[in-house]
Amino acid sequence: MKAEIIAVGTELLMGQIDNTDASYMSKRFPECGVYVYYHTVVGDNRGRLAECINIALKRADVVVLTGGLGPTQDDITKETVAEVLGLKLVFHPEILENVKEYFNTIRHNRKINIMAASNEKLAYYPEGCLILPNNNGTAPGCIISHFVEGADKTIILLPGPPWELQPMFDNYVVDYFKSKIQEGLKSVYLRMFGIGESAMESVISDIVSTQTNPTIAPYAKKGEVMLRVTARYEKGKQDPDLILKPILDILHERLGEYIYSDKDVELKVVTANLLMSKNITVSFAESCTGGMLSELLTDVPGISKVFLGSVVAYSNEIKQSVLKVSGNTLKKYGAVSEQTAKEMAQGVRLLYNTEVGISITGIAGPSGAVADKPVGRVYIGISTEQETLSYEYTFSGDRDKVRYFSCLNALNILRLYALSKG
Amino acid sequence: MKAEIIAVGTELLMGQIDNTDASYMSKRFPECGVYVYYHTVVGDNRGRLAECINIALKRADVVVLTGGLGPTQDDITKETVAEVLGLKLVFHPEILENVKEYFNTIRHNRKINIMAASNEKLAYYPEGCLILPNNNGTAPGCIISHFVEGADKTIILLPGPPWELQPMFDNYVVDYFKSKIQEGLKSVYLRMFGIGESAMESVISDIVSTQTNPTIAPYAKKGEVMLRVTARYEKGKQDPDLILKPILDILHERLGEYIYSDKDVELKVVTANLLMSKNITVSFAESCTGGMLSELLTDVPGISKVFLGSVVAYSNEIKQSVLKVSGNTLKKYGAVSEQTAKEMAQGVRLLYNTEVGISITGIAGPSGAVADKPVGRVYIGISTEQETLSYEYTFSGDRDKVRYFSCLNALNILRLYALSKG
Fold this sequence. Notes:
Chain A has helices spanning about 10-15, 20-30, 45-60, 75-85, 95-105, 115-120, 160-180, 195-210, 240-255, 265-280, 290-295, 315-320, 325-335, 340-350, 400-420; strands at about 1-10, 35-40, 60-65, 90, 125, 130, 140-150, 150-160, 185-190, 215-220, 225-235, 260, 280-285, 305-315, 355-360, 375-385, 390-395. Chain A has about 425 residues and is of the alpha/beta class. In chain A, strands 2-1-3-8-7-6 form a 6-stranded mixed β-sheet, with helices on both faces. A 5-stranded mixed β-sheet of chain A has the order 14-13-15-16-17, sandwiched between helices. Chain A has a 4-stranded antiparallel β-sheet with strand order 10-11-9-12, with helices on one face. In chain A, α3 (about 45-60) crosses α4. Chain A is elongated. Chains A and B meet through α2, β2, α3, β10 and α11 of A and α1, α2, β2, α3 and β10 of B.
């Protein structure tokens, strides 16, 4: 099935927010046999929105509209969809009850000032639609099944805020399509680190091109690559895992050393979970990354169990006074060197009394290059009671990319260390 | 003039990247009299792209296409635009020369493997177009002026990568429209911190609704709000600053205490520049923000001049052993308290020997709330030789929002301190 996602909201056309709802759904839709062919963004204007809906109904089977379900005058999505499809809007008293209850629950914490009259608008939905409850806000979503010029179309209305849309999409929309389609679909995600997109593709090009079931789709995002492997199967008759197994075996054989998860989770989460489950305490000494590594790891709730903290040492004085890097090392090899990285890692490990110390020192740019060390040169150190090592990297790209790639590599070094522990 | 932005690329439809190019241009276009009415995303498919271009030419005066200018088979934007408009593609030898030169320059640093044949594709552009040089990549952009059914349309092709698109847009596209339009337009941005979007709007609603020249447009993004004030003026006859002045005076009178810049720059950049220009050395002690504050400040190049580093103290042991917070304070008031924040700020200032020490300690959630302190409670400390203070906040929202808002407030405290210094 072909889908189009229409985001309704003038704030998107003013560049205030990115259309992350569209990215989110585009990534997840193929799991349930729906493929996104178009994204459209249009403002809060009935005429222009109606035109966009008509265009979408011609070129897609599934039309998803996000935003514009709220109680204000600017919220026009339900009204416009009903008008285009020739449907009445029907009052749902239970929705109004839920809205009142929602406000009662959260009123304890926040000041809320809403007019009762405009709330009534929240309870009108196109006749015959399936209401999708909103557990994180006031406006429910809905699914409309409708014939347009003899063709069966599905029109889905979802709230704009990502924290409302994402759980609603996961809990109701995915299941709706999974139950609707004849065949079953099961996806496995293989997340990888340490291999580029084109290198990964060349390693598996022979199977990607000949493969029809399961299918293999590569993704790449900010230093990490991923494969989505999707099996189609006859419900109740075939076991999707048996269809997936031969191809997963081949992928593991060829790419196993890079695969860090068979779920769609980020490297920092995998590393954090490993550290927590094995109770490995860590501390960081950061120079060029300036706290980014610590920030990434502490983004994972519960990590305080094993992460004690870090020292951001942005100057040579601090490297010496706090991390106990020797003045001789700094003078002889420089702050960006294998030797300094090692002493930083050891210094923070001893200061924070952790099992592992990790350090990053490098030249993030745009300036700072020296004769033998270009912008992008980074050293990552790892120190334990047994040994202290350092790795050299040269990253391309701007300041932000050099810093981010340094952190990903440090997380991976930490992950490999945790894996090596029984 | 009405504009539509068409992003071409299957990776957008797979949810791999957000359409940040569209947000960027949507925000900047009004400065030169162009208003964005639609965003469209379509895959690398000639038929579907041609259809989208035809729709856009009907409903917009300016059609911007991003992506698909590269040398591969998948790059189809130039070919499809030429076909739709009935234009030939013309070979530009000077573009090929530039491409060769570009690769020679960067070959020193990276391994590049490209086929000479496909590079030729980079040098073909629609006849009669204005070529826009690309100083950050290989594919130039272009501007085509063309009559479609009697109406004058402008079609602009830009490369997809943001680091190529943004400077090209700033350097060429903005000026193209500014020189084209009869009247002049001048915009001033007022960036604010410490006031919410709706509070700001209510303070100025009387002038926003009656104002026609200059116009006032509010923006809000992640904890900061902004007003764009735009004056229209007759070129060579009127001084736009005189048109802007009366309204800017009123805005400063009503909102002055919140305004931190009259340019479109982030709070961290304003704070960093102030610290650097006044040579105020700083260090941070971070608990719940886990390094995020340090990461934000070190995102500004050159900051190592005044930022010495920070201590991320994620455990009570480290607060005691490294930051010298007294065990008694932690026991009596807890790690999340005014007293601990003060001792952390003072501790890092003394350890790093800086003029100012800033600390953040709080409950970022989702768990961690205690009887008298909810999730979102944060204390920010500031310590100088003269005095040590602490501020209490209660932020709503998820873990990421609590952490980010804590950092913004810390940056603002630091900014106000720097301002207070002569």
